[in-house]
Amino acid sequence: MLTPDSVAAELAGWHARFFDSDDDAVHSSNDAVRSSNPAQASDDDARPTTDAVHASDTAHTTNTRPTTAPLTAHRLSDFRELVLEHGEGALFKGTHPRHITASLFVLSTDLSQILLAEHKKAKMWLQFGGHLERADASLADAALREGREESGLAEFVHVLPEPCDFDIHELGGGFGAICREHWDVGFVALADADAPVVVSSESENVRWFPVADLPDGGAGGMAERVQSALARAKAGLEN
User: Fold this and answer.
1) 134: which DSSP letter?
2) Do residues 188 and 229 lie in contact, with contact meaning Cβ atoms separated by under 8 Å?
3) Which end of the chain is more exposed for a tag (fewer CB within 10 A), N or C?
4) Where is this region: Disordered (predicted)?
């Protein structure tokens, strides 16, 4: 069951694993994810003060820092601070304009394709994901639940336990007055590209795309997020 304490502990655990560990394989894996998009500014270098980040509930986050960031100590701290400051409001829809969500990037087993959904409300092609539920065992569990619900996939060939990125994006008015920013934690799973998929009530379509040829009309930062997902998958399979 998700609680502010359990999510804060999950985030702290990733910090310890990726930034306090003496395991060279762990550091190598995280370095691969962080360097998956060389054009992206370092989140550590671009991180503003806490006051600048939280100055306005409706401010667009790109005014203060990159919206998409691989695993960095500063970005993990930002997410943990959100949970510690706002408690359940930072976890569940309907009580605070900023809250954490979980996404699942579903890649084919050969890492050449990605399964995306054409989202009805957002009107764009997206990875699977959404709001947390109290019954979720963890953020990773929430991402897997969303992936199953929105893709119809019965099982995944391989699930990477660590997140691939942290994305903060502002939402349009169609998501309601209270839901203004999603602080999204992305995870990765591999699936058989021949497995049957089902279009959920939240989507217009679900289909595979080459990772090198993503569809037009995708979310901003999608290409960077896919590269982070690929890097996490490659690093995880190698280790």
Assistant:
1) T
2) yes
3) N
4) 26-71
218: three-class secondary structure by DSSP: strand
What is the reported pLDDT for 169?
78
- The answer to whether the CB of 233 falls within 8 A of the CB of 160 is yes
Burial 229-238 (b: 16+ CB within 10 A, else e): bbbbbbbbee
H/E stretch holding 159 reads strand 158-170
What is the identity of the amino acid at 189?
A
* Residue 196: strand, helix, or coil: coil
If we measure between CA atoms, which residue out of 231, 230, 188, 224 comes closest to residue 66? Answer: 224
Phi, psi values for residue 45, rounded to 5° = -70, -35
- Amino acid in the structure at residue 186: G
94 to each of 66, 167, 172, 217, how far by Cα in Å? 26, 20, 15, 28
What residue segments make up the domains of the chain, in order of their start? 66-238
Residue from 90, 182, 185 nearest 140 by CA: 185
List, for residues 127-174, the tens digit of each pLDDT value.
999 999 999 999 999 999 999 999 999 899 999 999 999 988 776 655
DSSP structure string for 86-109: HGGGGTSTTS-SEEEEEEEEEEET
